[in-house]
Amino acid sequence: MPPTNNVTRMLxxxxxxxxxxxxxxxxxxxxxxxxxxxxxxxxxxxxxxxVRASGGKPLLALVPAPxxxxxxxxxxxxxxxxxxxxxxxxxxxxxxxxxxISPLALIGKGFDVALDQSALDFETIxxxxxxxxxxxxxxxxxxxxxxxxxxxxxxxx
Length: 157
What we know:
Elements (H helix, E strand, L loop, with lengths): L5 H8 L4 E5 L7 H8 L7 E8 L6 E6 L3 E2 L1 H8 L3 E3 L2 H8 L17 E5 L8 E7 L2 E5 L1 H8 L2 E3 L2 E2 L1
Parallel strand pairs: 3-6, 6-9
Antiparallel strand pairs: 1-8, 2-3, 2-5, 4-10, 7-8
C-alpha cells in the first residue's frame, strides 16, 4: 500500500480525485518511474527547480519525463532571467529530497509553478507525491487549480 503523507492527506481532505503509487525508495528519473508504473513517459511530469538571477522565490517547472526544461521559454514567459538550481540548491530551497520535490508539497510556500501545456493532453498525469518512493496521479486541471500553476510551452522535446 502506498504511503500516506501530507500531500495525500491534503488531496483527500480537499476531495481531489487522485491515486497514490509506490515507487522504489531510491531516486528514479522520470522515464524510470514511467517504466515502473507502466505508463507512457510523456504522462509522467518531473519537477525542476529554477532560480531567478534577481533572487526571490524559486520556480517549480513541471515538464514531461522525456523532455528538458526550456529555460529560455520559461524566462520569456515570466520576463525573468533564470538558471537551473543544482541538486543541493533544490533540496535546500524546497526542503525536499530530489526525486521527491513536488509542487503539491509546497502549496502556500510562495513558489511560482509552471506546467508544460502538454499536460492538458492527458486526463491524468503522474508527478511526485512529495517524497521519494511516492507518485500521485491526478487530473492536470486539479493540479493547476491547487498550485495556481501557469500553463505554458516550456518543454524542449
